[in-house]
Structure formats: structure tokens, C-alpha cells
Amino acid sequence: MQTGTPRSNSDREARSAPDESHGAVSTAPAPTGAPAETPAGCRPRIDRKSLRANRSTPAGIRRAHRAGHAADDSTEPSEAREFTGRALRILLEVLDRRRPVAQLNTLCASALVHTVGVLVAGDHAPSRTLGAAVLTKFRLFPAGDQAFELIAMYQRGPRRLALAGRVEHTATGWKLAALRLT
Questions:
Q1: Which of 43, 90, 108, 174 has the fewest C-beta atoms under 10 angstroms from its C-beta?
Q2: Which phi and psi angles does 156 have, rounded to 5°?
Q3: What's the sign of the alpha-carbon dihedral 133, 134, 137, 139?
Q4: Looking at the domain that runs over 79-181, which CATH code has it been given?
């Protein structure tokens, strides 16, 4: 004799109901290939394989998008990259007062040279008391046919700072046209 909680008649009927296709009693879950019944109020389980195969963006657009991002790095001319690295290092040395402001005349637009001169004269360079500024990395982004926008990280003592700017190709060569220090 079985002890424990008494079972209702509906439980017994559900367990002993014959399977219509075979005429046998089955208590096993539905086979994996067949869709399982979901209880009321629950959503059906999502098949992960169908999610990967059924994307919302067409494959051609995804391919073009990936190719466009890969092309961004290759369209950056090496001369623009070399100029930007040299100009940023010299700019940071000018802000630290290790070089005179006049050395920026060939590298920067005249308005920018004047602005940097005012920063240096008023000792307004960000976190200058922490030590010398050292350029750690920079990136260029195309901003037109002959222009790039840049972001750069530099370090003063334990603190990391950032700057942003624009480099343009003029008749006399590459020039730093805009600058934002933080």
C-alpha cells in the first residue's frame, strides 16, 4: 500500500490516458523534434539556432557595414599620422614650457597658435603641476577629403587626460586646425 498524499482522480486520469497514436501510456515528455506544449501564461521557448540564422539586417548590409569599418583604418595616410604624432608631442612640450610657442607656427593654424600662447602665458594648461605631459596614444578619423579629426590621450604624473582636434591638409602641408584640451 502506498502512503503519502492522496492523489485526485484527475491526476490518475491524466497519467493513465492512452496515447492516441500507439494506444500505450506515456509519461515521458514530447520528443525533441516535436514542439512541446507550453503551460497557459508562458511563452514558448526560443530556438537559438533560428535566432542566429534569422537576423533583422540583411546580410549584404552587414557585409558593407563591416567593410566600411575595415576601410576606415586603411584610408588614413601615413603622412597625416606622422604629422599628427609630431605636432601633438611638440604641442604638449609647448604647454609644459619646454619649447617656445613660436615653434607651433609651421604646425598649427595662426588662431590656434595665439590661443596656445594665451594658455601658456596665463599658466592655464590642464594639471600642469602634476608633471610633464606624455602622449600615450591617438586616433585619426576621416572628416572629409583632406581632413581628419583626432582624439588623443596623454598622461601627467598619475593622471590621464584627453584632447581632441582637427588636422587639415592645406597648400603648405598638414596643419593642426582645432584643439580642445581637458
A1: 43
A2: -125, 110
A3: positive
A4: 3.10.450.50
Residues 118-134, mean pLDDT to the nearest whole number: 90
Q: Which three cell numbers stand for residue 105?
A: 607656427
What is d(CA 80, CA 167) in angstroms, rounded to the nearest whole number? 8
pLDDT per residue over 18-60, tens digit each?
Answer: 545 555 555 555 555 555 566 777 777 766 665 555 567 777 7
What stretch of H or E contains 60?
A: helix 59-74
Cell of 37: 506544449
CA pair distance 92, 119, nearest whole angstrom: 12
**Beta partners for 153?**
137, 162
Phi, psi for residue 181 in degrees, rounded to 5? -105, 140
